[in-house]
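Why does residue order matter? Because the sequence determines the fold. Keep that principle in mind as you read this record.
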Amino acid sequence: MNVDRIVLLFAGLVILASVALALVHSPWWLALTAFVGANMAQAAITGFCPLAKILRALGVRPGQAFS
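Structure:
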């Protein structure tokens, strides 16, 4: 799995977890969903993603173009 797919998987899992926590525990967990969405938007605009930088430093191979 490459960096791009791991970042998307992680973001999706955090969003699902925060929605589930908002339903079960407190609606304030939706702030985490908003944070993930804002981070995804800024990453799309600026090209900077903190998780991608961490994964690359850990040796995960970078994303490749789809064929």
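DSSP finds three helices and no strands in the chain.
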